[in-house]
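Appendix B: complex inputs.
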Amino acid sequence: MHEKTAELIIDDSERESDLLWASGFLAGDQFTWLRDSKGSAIMLTDLELGRGEKESRVDEVISLSAVEKSAKEVKGGEPCSFEEIVLQLLRSRNIERVEVPSRFPLMIADFLRSGGIEVVARENPFFSDRRIKRADEIRCLEESQAATEEAMALAIRLISNSEPGQDGVLQLDGEPLTSELIKYSVRSFLLSKGLQIGEFIIAPGDQGCDPHDVGSGPIRAGETVICDIYPQHMTHRFWGDMTRTVVKGQATEDQKKIHAAVLEAQETAISLIKPGACGQEIHRRVQQVFEGAGFSTQQRDGTWEGFFHGTGHGLGLDIHEPPRISPVGPQLEEGMVVTVEPGLYYPGIGGCRIEDVVLVTANGCRNFNKAPKGLEV
Amino acid sequence: MHEKTAELIIDDSERESDLLWASGFLAGDQFTWLRDSKGSAIMLTDLELGRGEKESRVDEVISLSAVEKSAKEVKGGEPCSFEEIVLQLLRSRNIERVEVPSRFPLMIADFLRSGGIEVVARENPFFSDRRIKRADEIRCLEESQAATEEAMALAIRLISNSEPGQDGVLQLDGEPLTSELIKYSVRSFLLSKGLQIGEFIIAPGDQGCDPHDVGSGPIRAGETVICDIYPQHMTHRFWGDMTRTVVKGQATEDQKKIHAAVLEAQETAISLIKPGACGQEIHRRVQQVFEGAGFSTQQRDGTWEGFFHGTGHGLGLDIHEPPRISPVGPQLEEGMVVTVEPGLYYPGIGGCRIEDVVLVTANGCRNFNKAPKGLEV
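Resulting structure:
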């Protein structure tokens, strides 16, 4: 890095995973990270200094109040804004140009520019190194995915242990089985494993045809139920992500056909994953499987049906991160961790998606998932 | 608003509560909200359109793909970036100037500016109306705080039901009582009430003297335990926030003295809260209570002791929002909801903080909390 240039991030690391990745310091309050020719540093308030010294993995932990003191001196004792303190920090290190994430806060950028600093927003991803997972990161992802797989087994067990009542609604221990009840059980289980999960998808019947409908209400025998579970580990912050689709009891022929096509597409995609394979090409092959099986993709009355989302995405400290396996998917490299999750959605039949997480290895890929993919339970 | 000016937010509404507040639409993916002379609108991808129509509370839900189509036409059929689509949206509404939140993404701002749009970052808070809670928002806050109070009772019950072993470590059902065990119980309970909580504070002994130390390890009889619980409701997204400090068994004279001073300071602050009262002044009165009781605030070997944080903060869709009750605290107004949480911290004695949430009413304030504030349990 040029002597007068720095990389700069100002955010809180609970919401900005680039900052967490770079600093190793998890905080819900905004703080400053930079890296210049002198090394990497974070600037923290007095309240955070002690924890920062213990937990962060940067070369230097800088006291914000010490920098504030110098900034005040420059102003003849006048109080300073946070932006002025950041400007003082940059000046004290002779920095004239900073590269910042694309979503760097505009107001701070404008202030630094008015103070003579050149501020350049860098295209995503800010750290391209993040796409290649280190061994310790892979262990974290495996841990999160293993817990997710256990949670999935629990969700499917609730469905398979239920029995339909006269109206077709599944009953478990004398209560109707609902999307909400399954979600509560899954959340409780994940908590016991140290993971938390916000909204996620238990979507019966045609609810599953809208991939952003998280699902609600009673589950019925004979309808597809898309279970898509994506929790985050509370300590190391790596995500799990997994989808299965099941039908309690007898599936219809149409349901079996879309499930078989999705399974074939998913297995095809996984078989193609290796260093050098192109995400765009893998996505195209998935589309070809669906077209070959007679499943077309189109808009009907303003609603998409068929296969109309990406095949997969990188997984790490963000639930969705590069690389994509989609029309914009790049070449894969060893050490990337991606989801593989084709799906088909036809109102009247239901939705079906199957998703595993795989690690790109030297010769192919290693699937973190072992769970069965059968439709009827 | 001037005809050619708009307010513009581009973010995801899980992380940006201004966007959630303005749109009523909760989404983990980035979307666009604007308000101009024609009214308020959100622009969504096809995947989100249906849910947006159902759940948002804006005048118009705009299809991103429709705007993308026009943007492509302008470019002679070339593919468009997201920024180009936003620019097309603004141009289609004859907007020449946008006011955006202080942390609006820099890269989008730079692109819009290069396209001739004036982009102005507005000082926080972006929506000053958010400080005054509507009746439905107050109900949500009461619901979150009631669940928090129940969770607190559970945490304190675990401590009070324990008995010290020979080494002074509390034992519950034959197991050592730890910060982690209490947190797990609290999280599980809150989940059953529809709230989630990330890291929070169960901090025994001197751990409690660092207000940002979340606490860990075994709890001992005779030491202060700061319990600070702040969960977020998973559906309506309003936060609870509450702190109690307890000692299992016999407290020392010093512990009793800091507890009595904190209680007096907290009750004094609450008694002062009413429309027109100034946050800065209330904070100063809290400091006076502590000084009057002989508890000074200073740095010793680089560590602060005494009272060195704000007295309170606004609570709503953000855990910390305006107004502050602190050296920068403004006048309070009817309908504001604030925490009141003075504390004292002396290594060797322990930490003590007591926190309630109150609503500023026409004549004073109403405390959402009813829980006892005693020290020994």
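Chain A has a mean pLDDT of 96.
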